[in-house]
Structures are given as C-alpha cells and as structure tokens.
Amino acid sequence: MIIRYFADIRALTGRGEETWTKAAPDMRSLLEGLAAEHGSAFAKRVFDGDQLNSTIIIFINGRDVAHLKGIDSSLGVDDVVAIFPMVAGG
Amino acid sequence: MPKVLMIHPDRCTGCQSCELACSFSHENQFRPSATRVHVYSWEREGFSVPMMCQQCDSASCMKVCPTGALHRARGTTLVEYSQEKCIGCRMCTIACPFGNAVYDSVTGSILKCDTCGGEPSCVQICPSQALEFVDDNISTRSRKMAFAGKFKSAFEGA
Amino acid sequence: MNGYTGTILRINLTTGAVSRQATNMKDAALYIGARGLADKIYIDEVDPMIDPLSPDNKLVFAPGPFTGTFAPSGGRYHVVTKGPLTDAITGANSGGSWGPELHYAGYDALVLEGKADEPVYLWIKDDLVEIRRASHLWGKWVPDTTDMIRAETDVEAKVACIGPAGEKQVLFAAIMNEMHRAAGRGGVGAVMGSKNLKAIAVVGTKALSVAKPKEFKEAVLAGRKGIKEHPVGGAGLKAYGTDVLVNILNEIGSFPVHNFQDGYYPHADRVGGETLAANQLVRAKGCFSCVISCGRVSKVKNPKYAGEGEGPEYEAAWSMGPDCGIDNLDAVTHTNHLCNEMGMDPISLGSTLACAMELFEAGLITLKDTDGVDLRFGNVDAMVEMTRKTGLREGIGNKLALGSYRLANSYGHAELSMTVKKMEIPAYDPRGIQGIGLEYATCTRGGCHVKGYTIAVEVLGSGTKLDPHLTKDKPYWVKLFQDLTAAIDASGGCIFGTFGMSGENYAAMLSALTGITYTPEDYLKAGERIWNLEKLFNIRAGLTMKDDQLPARLTTLPIKTGPSKGELSHVPEMLPEYYALRGWDVEGIPTRERLEELQLV
User: Fold this and answer.
1) Could you point out which of C97, C198, C381, C442 has its C-alpha 20 to 30 Å from the C-alpha of B40?
2) What mean pLDDT, rounded, does chain C reach?
3) DSSP 3-state assignment of B131?
4) What sections of C160-264 are H helices per DSSP?
5) Is the omega angle on the peptide bond into residue B127 within 30 degrees of 0, that is, cis?
6) By the CB < 8 Å criterion, does B43 face chain C?
7) What is the pLDDT averaged over residues C85-98?
8) Which CATH class is domain C243-424?
9) Total number of domains in chain B
10) Reported ipTM
11) Interface check C450 vs A, CB under 8 A
12) Is the pTM for the entire model greater than 0.90?
C-alpha cells in the first residue's frame, strides 16, 4: 500500500510518501497504524474522536472516502491512499 | 508596565486592514488619507511596512509644540493630542523625524496614533500578527530569541 | 449615499472629453456594482456586433460597494468589455489596491470609449482628470511602466496598465495593477491597447461612508472570523497558495496533461504548492482588506531563470507546466513572472503553447515555422522562448498571440484547441469532474472555471461533498455557484471569501453598508439577474447553444491513465437540465417569464 501526504500533513510525517506493509483492511485501521507510527500531532489531525476529522480529505485510488464508506472504507494491499488537509485554489 | 505598538514588517502582507480599522474607528467611515497608521509597499520585492507614531520618550513634536497640544501625562507612554489647544502651526509635522505626524485639512487637526484608548484597532484587525500591543520590555524578545536560536543551530551543526 | 460615491466618470479618448454623470441608483440596487453595474452600463450602450478591437468598443472599470471598506477580501474591481478572444461579453476581476483607490477618488465606474490618436495614460486624482502623453512609456513592461508613471504623478499612485502584450493586442493580453495583480482573461488588455491607452494612474483621498456603521462592523468581524477559522481561508491558502491544488487534482486523476491528451502526471509534485513553498516562495501577500493572503511573493535563484515577482498560481503552474509536459518549477515561475511583466493571461498562454506543441508533434507546425525551435512537449527552453515571443508577437509568436483556437484552425485542426467559445479551458479535467465541465460550457465569458467554481464542492468538500464523477444535481450546483459568484463579483468581493463566509454573511454586510436591505435570496437573485443580462448580450452577439459545448476530445477520448482512466465528460446530458433550471428554453434562450421575474424586461 502506498500512502501519500500533502501540504502540512508532510510536516507531521516527515515525508511525502511511504510504502505501508502492515495489515490494514480498512481506513480506520490504517489511520490508527499511521498515528501510532507518526505520533499524536498526526493523530489529532486525522481523527476527531473516533471519526474522521472533517478538515481532512482522503482518497483511495483517487476516490474520496466520503463517496465510499468514509472511515470504514475497505482497503486492498495495492491501493494508493492520499491524505490532504482541506485546500483550495482557483 | 507600559505597552507599545510593535511592528513586525516581515509578517506584513500589505493588506492595509490596519489603515481601514484606524480610519473607521475614528470616523465611522473609510478615508485612507486620514489614517494614523500607513502601510508602505514595494511591489518588486513584495515587502510592506506599517508605520505609525512611535510615542518617543523624548518626542520632538512635543518639544516644538507652542501650545502644549501635544503632551504626555506623567508616567504614561502615549504622546497625547488635544485638538482644542492646537493652532494648526504644523511645527510637529516638520519636527517628527519619522513623518508620523500628519496635518489633515478636512478635520483641521494633526493625525497621530492615539492607541485607540489602549485597545488599538489596527492590532485587533491585523490578520498576520504584524502589529502587536505588548509590554515595553518584551516587545523585541521574540526577535532576539529567534536570532539566539540561530546561534544554537550554528553550534549544533559544528 | 453609502457604499456608492454617486458619480460615474466618462472619458472619450477620441475627443479628449471628460464628463461625469450620476450613478443610476435603481441600477445599483438591482445590479449591486462592479461586474453587475459595469455590465448594465456596457450592455445598455454597446452594439453586440462591434469589433472588440475597434474604437467602437467601450471599456468599463468598476469597483463594488465593498471596495475600499474593510469587508474581508473586499477590495476588488471588475473590467467589462466585449472580449477580442471570444467575441462575447467579457468581465475580468482583479485584486491588489487599484479598485479601492478609484472608489476613494469618488467614482462608482470609469467608462472609456473611442481611441486616442497616440499613446496616452490617464491621471486621476479625486476631481482632477488628465489625459497625458504616454509615447515615452509605450513599449515599457509593466514594472517599469508603474514606476515611471508614479515618478510623474504620485509616488503612491495605484497604476493599472498594459505591457507589450496589450500594446500589440495579443488576444489574451491582461490589464495589470500593482505590477502583479491581473484583470486577466479574454483579452481586456488588448482592448485597452487598441485604444492607445497605456495606463490609468489613480490617487483618491475622499471618504466612503457606511449606512449602519455598528452593524457593518459586526458583520465584517463575523465574516473575518469565519474565514480565519476555516481551514482553507484561515491557513491552507496562506501556507501553500492555490498551487497546492496540483497534487490534489493529480491524485484524483483529473489533472490535464499534454493539451488534455491525458489526466495524470507522475511528477506533478515537482510543480506543486509544497515544492513552491520550499523553493521559490519568499512570503505570502494579501490584497486589499484580505485576511487570507493567498498571494505568493516568489523569487527564482537559478541564474537561468532568475527574477522576482509573484505566483505562480495553480492555473499557471499547470498551463506552463504539465499541460506542456514540463515540471521545472523554476522555469514555470519565471514564465509566470514574464506573463505578469508583459501583461498576459498565463492560462491562455500555456494552453495555446500546449496546443502548438501538439500541432508540432503532429508535423503540422514545422521547424521552419518556429525558426528552428523544437516545440515539443517537455521542451522547457522552447516554452520559455515562446512565452516571450508571444508577448512580443515575434516570429510564430504572432500566431500564438491569437490563441489556440485561431492557431489550430489555421492548420485545419480546430478540434485540437481546448477551448470553449475560443477561450482556453483551465486546469481541471472535465472528464473526471462533471460539474466543472458544465461550467466551462456555459460560462458567459467562455472556458472559465472561476465564475462557477464547483471544484469547491466536487473536489475540495468545502461545506458539501459531491462525487466528481457523477452528473446528478450538477446543473443545480453550477447555477448556484454562477449566481453567487456574480453577486460577489458585483459587490467588489473576492470569491475566496466563500471559504468561511456564506450568502448570509455577504447579504448582511451589503445591507449594513448600503442601507439597502438584501436577504440572501435577494443577493443570489441579483447574481442570477447579472448572469441573464450577460447571456442576452451573447445571444445578440450571435452566440447559440452550439457554443455551449466542450471540445470533442473531452466527450469522446477517455482519460488514458491514472485514477480517472476511462472517464468522459457528460456535459451534453446535463445541459437540458441546466437550461431548465435557468428558466431558459431548450435552445438556451431565456424565457420571457424568467426575464420578467428578474426585472430584465
């Protein structure tokens, strides 16, 4: 599984991308694993209690988890996950 | 502990919100020529600096004022302006080495920062913390600390 | 009079006549100001069939009621004309601080007509209006023009000007103010150049009054707080600028590449906002009265592309970057600086170059045509050189200056131009994002994203999250964004204020400022009115529903790689519902019923 980080999330993980080999059948378990690895600042950014923080956007293979099953979206070992803070442009 | 208006030009984005808040809080309208804080911008370099009365300890404007319209209450930092005593001679505008005293022909008065009675509007509206109203002795502490940190980095790297 | 000065300034450049008229306050209530008021003035006075580059065209500059107050991000002005790129009604919006200055000088609008017989600039200081010689400035680029004019007028004058691109009537030339802000699209700069008008310098010292100061201040502070607390308005845009979008669009596979031949670019990160923040960003910059500070003061140290200026925004990083197969951010930043300095729209410039690259790789444009420049995708030197040549209309730049539609058409392949109504579509692939495609197709000024920015809900999830791949409800959302944006444009506000403020905030501020009561519904209705006014002009200018469509590539050639592989745009399926929601007939003509409801007949 490839995990990509963008904008200020990169500062929280110290990298733009990593390969994740630990088991993660769904987004919740993946985020819990990543939070254990990258610390409480990262955890606070992606979680709001036990729900997904509303200021975070997460894609699985380019699909926003909001249009899948949110934090319960299932994951496959070859998936690409992208984690963004809410951003904007023109 | 007396407070001073501290400027951080490196944080200024040039938005001029301070000018607008200053004008509005004094006149309930927006008149850019009548602000007591003025932002200067250099477009090529993208640098902006807000400027206002420095409330000098040894204020040149007070020294030349013939009527005491510009005066300071004992023990305070603010150089106060009493329009009723002002004769409009403009000596203060000549004396101020920073050009921070300005004569406004519309109101027939001198415009200089009055710190809005202790709660400066410019500080409240600035979106970038480029203006702060802080205790006199800590006003430059953050800058000093930042540079002290550079020594720390330099020695750590050695 | 609150929020308005009550005076419109008119200058006839042919005769030199300067006159003033009272602002029509009935129109002000219906159309608000800026885009709306300028549209009303322009559309009432100009024959839709005129040649945009002839002296018969008019150029209207207008601030809005917010412009010059501390309404958050409320310092904008709008320029309205018939655009030479599209032959349609064209409005371009700009920030900086020029708009407020015109308002302080005492004017709700500046209407220019005719053509000066030699280069001139306007010097406006409150009631003083002078038409001055500008022959010594003709040929100067935007930064030098600005400094030279300030030396002759006032060191703090706000200067809106054209560079060589506008002078030479590049069809996508821009009008620049404060050196780096742009009324960018559709060729408004070319219209200014066709009038021999080099610049407008303004100093304003008058006051703008407020109907209900206490309520206005409360509404403004609530608005500023809302923006500050919004993740985008409050922090994201200041840290990374709009260029942060590169990675997000690429991750969903709707990042157009190689003239929309594909929608995914493996090395997109190299031109993204994170990279910009690390390598070229000097500091954030804010327009007048703005808490967001999305502007990028940028500097390139690489000697080959050295320079300082502002940008690039997302659109520019895309158009001169991966759309041309390029991912060198130093070079892209440099060409963005060039676009600002020469006064050109980087979206149309980059997309025209991408089209030229496709024509070159197809063997239609030859090395002879390019004077030996190998104009293929990925050639950074070629992209930089052609940017300069286009702005100066040298060599093949003379053809590139006409935009991609006329360029591709001249080689018999108009279908390779990624345009709607001959204006280049921006950096969101409509095959992967359905709603923005409908905006491109229906925007009154041509292929534009910003006047109906559904990306906010289709990709960024600001407020509501819509699936970008679905067409369901998109016509509703496109109309909503188009109407709200028109109202915000007309108020003098920047649409980035919507990251933290709602229609309720805007209506409250406008009501307290002007003393005219607007409910949020009234506010949106004013936007809808403005949209329909523009549509009516376009119909009279000869545009039909045939012009409300995307290039065939986007409805027939699926995205090749990446997360949106296989997708196509479904604009034709959405158009009937869009027309119906707008109260237009099946051919997109506004019905009498809707026009009466909008007080347009």
Assistant:
1) C198
2) 97
3) strand
4) 164-167, 188-194, 213-229, 231, 237-240, 245-251
5) no
6) yes
7) 98
8) mainly alpha
9) 1
10) 0.93
11) yes
12) yes
